[in-house]
Amino acid sequence: MDPSKNSPLSRLFGRSPFDAVAEHIRQVDHGADLLGAYLEASAAGDWARADGLHTQIAECEHAADDLKDRIRLNLPSTLFLPISRSDLLVLIEAQDKIINKIKDISGLMTGRRMQFPATLEQPIGDYMQTSIASVHQARKVIEELDELLDSGFGRNVGEMIEDMVVELGRLEKRADEEQIDIRQRLLALESELPPLEVMFLYRVIDWIGTVADRAERVGSRLQIMMAR
User: Any idea what DSSP says for residue 3?
Assistant: First the structure.
């Protein structure tokens, strides 16, 4: 029997440290899907369901935090991998910021029982789906890491990863464009809404875009790692 298979490190990381990193991004990705369902529940005024979804999002955030902490505590100072320990830790931190912002959105909307004006529901829904798609794409990129390592960062796999990161950038750009459109629509409605409500609506709009931005940064971090 190989004693290394029973070590705390192998139990946490499986075949490689990227197993734990991939598990972390899957928690983040699940939280993004829950946020999409949360927006639908809040728009319908179903606050019992929305509250339950917020609780599930918080559980995803806690699970991701636990994984992040375990990776930090168990990752050896020297890794026989094509990337450095510090790069791996920066990557996991970039992933963690996504789920943190997802929780911020559902937390603020839950606490204030926030709903968007009816005329904004469709564009907000589309905007949210773009941000969620960005997180899905970040997950796909991370899940290719093991193949990337197995190939020794070979040209074909490297090009595939590059294409996936380009798609991440395209989604982030689309989210930016959708945010601009929604902000303009909300500007036209400002006089009909309580000023404090308007302020928080703008904040949520901004945070939805932040989710896409942080997903794109995960791809950027991977590009930097590949270039070293």
Answer: G
* Under 8 Å between Cβ of 13 and 113: no
Range of the domain at 86: 6-227
Helices assigned H by DSSP within the chain? 8-13, 17-43, 47-74, 85-112, 121-143, 145-150, 155-189, 195-227
Per-residue pLDDT tens over the stretch 22-76: 999 999 999 999 999 999 999 999 999 999 999 999 999 999 999 999 888 877 6
pTM assigned to the model: 0.88
Indicate which CATH number applies to the domain containing 151.
Answer: 1.20.58.220
**Residue 79: φ, ψ to 5°:** -120, 135
For residues 150 and 144, what is the distance between their CA atoms, to the nearest angstrom?
10
The angle formed by the CA atoms of residues 188, 194 and 199, to the nearest 5 degrees, is 75
State the CB neighbour count (10 A cutoff) for residue 45: 10
